[in-house]
Design goal:
TIM Barrel; eight-stranded mixed sheet; 39% helix; alpha/beta; globular
């Protein structure tokens, strides 16, 4: 890895040895941050009726990223049609009024990204299995609006599986993102418990179609550890993702129970184990593997994509 980028990424990760919080190991503690910049960004987002996965999924990096002026926009509303046990994004019934799409959302995302002066914009969404297109037209329109407002910015999308609708995958790619991300989330054996409304092979197919349809677009996938998977299962998953070059980049982070209703943490994976996963991924040919306790699929996404691009050069 390029030394300067390695320093930037490692400096962004919290150091071990701070005061322990509850029963978390020392490498899973972060300093408290209560900056006005965080409050101000939340206020701006609410003024435009926008949501972020940072807030809705209770990301432990929220205050750090918001203070740096970074956020991952979550479109298609703030209610998900699925009930994954690892996620704290609100769930709801499609017959509720709150499920109606905000026609101004794509333009508002673009305006907010422009206001924030973003050079790298990450857009994700809830699952909208109630919509025939899975929300892909809305997703693509959001990318186009951001492109128009910030023509020099790079755009990363993190999409759902669209229930296997590959036309929806292609529709988002046609809007011109620089990076296409679809998370595997967990190993094959744990799908029935962790992602009961998803399918392991279907998620692999999403990555395969994305890479085949737009080979020039960087592909990416992420997974959580600490849910009961074995080391061998993680390396098998990394192998499955990399098979035939399905993904150029892998992100690996510690699962943290977002609420009492979430799945329990089975294991706190050590930093040394994360290093092993990173070494294995690079060894089998990934352009970039970002692996650590606080890593999330969109965390430091600009630096991760840049490093992967350097590896491609």
């Amino acid at each position: 890895m390029h030394p300067s980028l390695l320093v930037q990424i490692e400096n962004a990760l919290p150091a071990a040895g701070r005061a322990r919080r509850g029963r978390l190991p020392e490498w899973l503690t972060k300093p408290e941050m209560n900056h006005e910049s965080v409050t101000a960004l939340k206020r701006d987002l609410r003024a435009r009726n926008l949501h972020t996965v940072c807030e809705s999924a209770r990301c432990p990096n929220l205050r750090e990223c918001f203070h740096r002026g970074q956020a991952t926009f979550m479109i298609l509303g703030n209610l998900c049609t699925r009930g994954c046990g690892f996620c704290s994004v609100p769930k709801g019934s499609p017959d509720k009024h709150e499920f109606s799409l905000d026609p101004m959302e794509p333009a508002n995302v673009a305006r907010q990204a422009e206001t924030m002066g973003l050079k790298y914009v990450v857009i994700t969404s809830v699952n909208r299995d109630d919509l025939a297109d899975g929300g892909s037209h809305h997703f693509a329109q959001t990318v186009r609006e951001v492109r128009a407002a910030l023509p020099k910015a790079r755009v990363e999308v993190l999409t759902p599986d669209f229930e296997g609708n590959m036309d929806a995958v292609k529709r988002v790619l046609d809007a011109g993102p620089d990076v296409y991300n679809h998370n595997m989330e967990t190993v094959r054996r744990l799908y029935p418990r962790v992602r009961p409304q998803a399918d392991y092979r279907q998620s692999l197919a999403v990555l395969r179609v994305a890479k085949q349809y737009r080979p020039d677009v960087l592909t990416k996938s992420g997974l959580m550890v600490g849910l009961g998977e074995s080391h061998e299962e993680v390396t098998q998953l990394l192998g499955d993702i990399h098979l035939n070059g399905l993904a150029d980049v892998a992100t690996i982070g510690q699962y943290l129970q977002p609420s009492r209703r979430g799945l329990p943490v089975i294991k706190y994976v050590t930093p040394a184990e994360f290093d092993d996963y990173r070494s294995h991924g690079l060894g089998i040919g990934f352009k970039m593997v970002f692996s650590g306790p606080f890593v999330r699929s969109s965390y430091m996404a600009d630096l991760v994509a840049h490093e992967a691009s350097l590896a491609s050069a």
